[in-house]
Amino acid sequence: MKKLFILVISLLVVSVSLFAKTVVSIKGDKICINGTETFKGKTWRGYSIEGLLPNSRMANAVFDDETDSTRYKWVYPDTKKWDAERNTNEFIEQLPIYRKKGLLAIGVNLQGGSPQGYSKGQPWCNTAITPDGGLKPAYMDRMGKIIEKADELGMVVIMGIYYFGQEKYINDEAAVKKGIKNTVEWVLKNNYTNVLLEINNECDFYHKHSILKPARVHEAILYAKSIQVNGKRLLVSTSNGGGKCPTSEMVKAADFILLHGNGLNDPKRIVNLVEKVRSIDTYTSKPIIFNEDDHYDFEKPMNNFVAATSVGASWGFFDYRRSGEDFNEGFQCVPVDWKINSDRKKGFFNIIDEWE
Questions:
Q1: Cβ pair 105, 53 in contact under 8 A
Q2: 326 conformational bin, left if phi > 0, alpha if psi -120 to 50, beta if neither
Q3: What tens digit of pLDDT does each residue of 269-279 get?
Q4: Residue 213 three-state SS
Q5: Pick from 313, 295, 293, 318: nearest CA to 242
Q6: Alpha-carbon distance 145 to 142, whole Å?
Q7: CA distance 198 to 107
Q8: Looking at the whole model, is its pTM more than 0.85?
């Protein structure tokens, strides 16, 4: 009987662990995890942080390159080889450390981000979406591992589909929509409940497909929202380039607003951008999230992070390896050293650690 009791308890523990889920939702202008506003009732430096989602851009956590002429650029210093699985596995190893430091969300894109930080041309091919809108199993397997580990840790994944410079590999608008449909259904069928969807990163930089540009991207948002599995849908948005305000149609269609702080050197401009969004006639109470900003100054009493917090907007860390910097710098340039081992990384994680 005692052995049977132990077996039953063990099975219950396994059952609970298998079905443990992190559910992200929205209540007014606040982000909730498992039905409760994040940092409920908490303040930091005199500002309410309830419902905020501190995040970091980790766009290339599922990166690969199918182009022989550019793959050599991403080799690791120690092995002199590029390894997509190593990249993802090393990222996943760091997730518990990020979470312990207070990070609640990570931004990972199916077409990545520039592996050079910023780049004019993109001759490489890094896309989880096939030309006709299908999904590549190896990419989705890596993404699934990340989402599942984040789920286990109580973290949210802001998952992007398209990235400018890589959308050129998608045949036409029908394939773009098919890619959206397949991605949304993949998330829902896997019962991933900790995902916020970003249709595309910086829609104002797209050249090929009009449905991914500012004038029509709200159509893509509405299309993604219309896709359901077992009566469930995803929360969806998109983003513009640094300092750009979304159109009224984008604001109306999106479940939450994504902003970028790149180019906003004065923290006052962060405040002004948030206030401008809230003044748009189609804006109703919904979360405002910066999911990309390459300004730091964390040691100063006022910086872009503090400015966003002061007006109830979440802030996202975007760090990349500058020219001539060591391997340990940045979270975007490939190959990525995912450890918290540079001054900029430490500065960000030290400041969000105060929130815990």
A1: yes
A2: beta
A3: 999 999 999 99
A4: coil
A5: 293
A6: 5
A7: 9
A8: yes
